[in-house]
Every structure is written in C-alpha cells, then in structure tokens.
Amino acid sequence: MQLTYAGRFGMAAVSFAALAALAACSSPSQINTRDGQSVSTADRPEVDKDKDFITYEKDGREVQVNKADVHSIEEIK
C-alpha cells in the first residue's frame, strides 16, 4: 500500500499533534517538604484527596508522600 502526498501529510500532521499533546502534559515540578527538602519530578505529582497522599514517579518507581509533610508544589519553568 502506497500513500499519496495528502496521505503522508495527514499522517505527519496526526503524529505531530500527538507529540505536541504529550509534551503539553509534561509539567516538571518541585516538591518542597516541611522539613526543608526539595524533590524534582518529571511530571506534576498527583494529589489523592481521599488518601491524603501526593504521588510522583522517581527512577521508575511510584513514591507517596503524606500531604501533611508537603509545604508546596511548584511547577518548574
């Protein structure tokens, strides 16, 4: 199956849109704890309101921090 010019352009446009959407989701953040520590994360941490935990990924592992131990979460620009 050979794609026409319009077909190739359409596939490239869809690929670009998907890549742009993924890049837009990434929000590097910094978690500042009440004891003065700082943790940088690749993506914005998830705040679980039911369990009072903040979850983020570090070195391929899921890490949970008690919300009471967190002073602030800031987006790194």
From TrEMBL:
Stretches that traverse the bilayer: none
Keywords from the named record: Cell membrane, Lipoprotein, Membrane, Palmitate, Signal
Secretion signal span: 1-20
Cited Gene3D superfamilies: 2.30.30.100
InterPro entries referenced in this protein's UniProt entry, alphabetically: LSM_dom_sf (IPR010920), YgdI/YgdR-like (IPR010305), YgdI/YgdR-like_SH3-like (IPR047807)
Pfam families assigned to the protein according to its UniProt record, in alphabetical order: DUF903
All residue ranges annotated as the Lipoprotein YgdI/YgdR-like SH3-like domain in the record: 28-75
Protein name, entry field: Uncharacterized protein DUF903
Biological source species: Paracandidimonas soli
